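Thread title: Can someone regenerate the structure for this chain?

I was given the following input by a collaborator and told the matching structure tokens would be attached. They weren't. Posting the sequence so someone can regenerate them.
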Amino acid sequence: MTIDRILDVLDSLVVATTQDQWVGRRRQTLSVAPLKLTAQLHDLPVIYVPEDKIEFSSWVPPPPFDVLSNNNILVTASFGRRIPQTCLRHFQRGRKLNVHPSLLPAYRGAAPIQHALLDGIGTTGTSIIEMEDGKGFDFGDIWAQQDLKIPPFSTYRSLEPELAKLGGRLLVQVLRQAKADANFAAIPQDHSLATKARLIKAEQSEIQWSSWDAERIERTHRAIGHQRPVFTTTPDKRRSRLQLLEMSVASENAQLPSLRVPGDAAYEPSDNSLRIKCANQTQLIVSVVKGENKSAVKVKEWWNGVPSVWLKDGVLKLGSSVPPP
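Best answer:
Regenerated them for you:
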């Protein structure tokens, strides 16, 4: 969606985002918000919201957005912070909209795309809702929704831009309909159907071989691997982490009979992969791994460096329950 396509519903557009920040070692790299770069590309004015939580909790937007006016509209998308009442009170109902990448009330929270993929559902979508203070995140009335079929083997990185485009188009439709139809109204959410999509935590990416089947591991990789690579541990004294970066589920006739219990792993020379026994009589095929404090490598290269003391009859035991040699 280009800026030109929304000029019929907006006279002007102002972008609110975060200040540039120095990041990295010794703070030598300047990080600029992607939204700011987009604004600069289209010669749009930019205002900055405070980073400090206390300061932001009482933030009032600058003129002309500091007075209640039917002319002003506030739109947020993936902002990640609760908009304070000191800001919301300057925008009338129907003029404070949030674009949320799920079919609310399903997947309220900070990680709706990840949780949709984790759950393996076939359809998700986008909602345009009213922002309401004091009710929590994503509780507002729904102005519009549109579903989206999740293609097989979708990842977060492949699904997120599709939902972003869908959300942009749906937002413009809502703005146009609100402008043309005085009776256009939002619909309350059915709170009894709400599900949560909490922030992804580090422990969610540690593979539990005895209870996770190969499909769950592969699905978890597609859902959160971009931010929390799925990992297991190797049988050294430090319990070093081993990230699994490329994988697929082995068909039943491709399974190795030498793998007896979940966490058993062996090198398969026919396709240079690591085969790992998972729960429910399933196996995982892994082609790229990353050792702790090391670069990602093909499995063949990594396996060549596996100490012989770790192996018994060519089988490696992975996971935190395995005693070190």
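The chain has a mean pLDDT of 93.
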